[in-house]
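FW: tagging you since you asked about this chain on Friday. Here's the raw sequence from the shared folder, copied in full. Didn't touch anything.
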Amino acid sequence: MEQLLASRSVSITELKRSPSTVIEQAGSEPVAVLNHNRPAAYLLPQAAYQRLLDRLQAAENRS
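HL: got it, structure written out here
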């Protein structure tokens, strides 16, 4: 099995069934979205995604 890069995970089926609940339960943490028990995607809260973009932009500006 591939390494999960999040402490929480959810199946695609569960995400489809109740996306609002998954997002609410995630809080400020990323969630691995699994397809057949393999990570298919990562769901990031808006604030975490913004921090990631800010870091990337800062790294590009230093280059």
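FW: The helical segments are 12-17, 19-26, 46-62.
HL: agreed, and The chain has a mean pLDDT of 95.
FW: great, closing this out.
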